[in-house]
Specification:
- The chain has helices at 2-33, 38-45, 49-52, 54-66, 68-77, 79-101, 108-136, 147-152, 158-182, 186-216, 220-226, 229-250, 254-276, 298-326, and strands at residues 279-281, 289-290.
- It has 331 residues and is mainly α.
- The two termini are 39 Å apart.
- Helix 1 runs antiparallel to helix 4, helix 1 (2-33) crosses helix 9 (158-182) and helix 12 packs antiparallel against helix 13.
- It has one domain (2-326).
- The radius of gyration is 20 Å and the shape is globular.
- A hairpin with a 7-residue loop joins strand 1 (279-281) and strand 2 (289-290).
- The protein has a two-stranded antiparallel ribbon with strand order 1-2.
- Belongs to the cytochrome ubiquinol oxidase subunit 2 family.
- GO terms for molecular function: electron transfer activity; oxidoreductase activity, acting on diphenols and related substances as donors, oxygen as acceptor.
- The chain crosses the membrane at residues 6-32, 53-72, 78-98, 110-135, 155-179, 199-217, 223-245, 257-281, 301-323.
- InterPro entries: Cyt-d_oxidase_su2.
- It is a multi-pass membrane protein.
Length: 331
């Protein structure tokens, strides 16, 4: 049961990173490119942007029911970045809805644009900050600790914010590839192709900074990654795919590069999981929270498994049908 639950949780995180990440990345792209990207972004994400957050809801439900200590620890120790993430999701979704479906266009749309753009960037960054805090190993349960040590220090540092910027760049990179696949005009194809290359270069630079800071801060994740062959193989595979994606951009193989990018993101996540699992949260006192010491009772896992099986039989075909209708019909 545990293996199946972890599998579904992994699928949920993968699709949220790929599809939800593309949503956030679209806002980040618009922040840097301005109004010229609004129409391509509408075409790319308007039909499916709401359903993409279903994957996050699914992941939260699984963690809440299947791994309650993980949910509790994150909700307490990381409540500040999680609150910023929540507000960012609400604000960007509201702004996107108002500016896209509002029939009366006036000066308020300027505010909708900026709320959508800034909240997209902040949400992406703090998703990465939260991930960094889980790897950083400074989360402290000591009741005698100060407010700063318990609720600020675990995430307010250079390493966590470098992870946040890296995640934001990944999202922008994914979005540029997806929007590139939606582009029709040759000028748009060239523009988003160049943008995708620039974001990929930025990812490499910031990724190097993340590794450097991980070494300087003695982050436990780094030593685990260096000793995990699967992690090395996955990261190497993700790197090898980069020139293939660039070649596909140059040759306008727009659908092929989408597949390559999805595979690339999957390999990056596999590399992280191979180094991190079974540890989910590195604790300051060494009592790390893992898949095994944080799992719910067998009775809870049994009913959660049934719910996931039944839900999967309806969710996955419905998602496929949605994308088939609104994304692949014209191809």
């Amino acid at each position: 049961m545990l293996e199946f639950i972890v599998l579904v949780l992994s699928i949920a995180f993968f699709f949220y990173t790929l599809l939800g990440g593309a949503d956030f990345g679209a806002g980040i792209i618009e922040l840097f490119t301005g109004n010229k990207s609004i129409r391509p972004i509408y075409k790319a994400i308007a039909p499916v942007w709401e359903v993409n957050h279903m994957w996050l809801i699914l992941a939260i439900v699984i963690i809440f029911n299947g791994f309650p200590p993980i949910f509790a620890q994150m909700s307490v120790s990381l409540h500040i970045p999680l609150f910023i993430i929540l507000m960012g999701i609400v604000l960007r979704g509201t702004a996107f809805t108002f500016r896209h479906y509002d029939t009366h266009v006036d000066g308020t749309h300027v505010y909708y644009h900026w709320i959508f753009r800034i909240s997209s960037l902040l949400t992406a960054v703090f998703l990465g900050v939260t991930l960094g805090a889980m790897m950083y190993g400074r989360i402290d349960n000591d009741p005698n600790s100060t407010f700063y040590l318990q609720f600020i220090a675990p995430w307010f540092n250079y390493f966590c914010f470098s992870v946040g910027i890296f995640v934001a760049l990944i999202f922008a990179y994914i979005a540029s590839i997806f929007i590139l696949g939606e582009a029709i005009e040759a000028k748009q194809v060239r523009f988003y192709g160049i943008l995708a290359k620039r974001f990929s270069i930025s990812m490499i630079i910031v990724g190097s900074v993340v590794l450097t800071l991980a070494y300087l801060y003695e982050v436990p994740f780094l030593s685990l990654a260096l000793s995990a062959p699967i992690s090395w193989a996955a990261f190497t595979g993700a790197t090898i795919l980069l020139p293939l994606i660039w070649r596909g951009i140059n040759k306008n193989q727009l659908q092929l590069i989408r597949v390559f990018v999805a595979l690339q993101i999957g390999l990056i996540m596999l590399g992280w999981a191979a180094a991190q699992i079974p540890i989910l949260i590195h604790m300051k006192d060494g009592n790390h929270l893992t898949l095994y010491n944080s799992v719910a009772p067998d009775a809870t896992l049994y009913y959660l498994t049934i719910a996931l099986v039944v839900g999967s039989l309806s969710i996955f075909p419905s998602i496929y049908y949605l994308f088939r209708v609104v994304k692949f019909k014209s191809e």
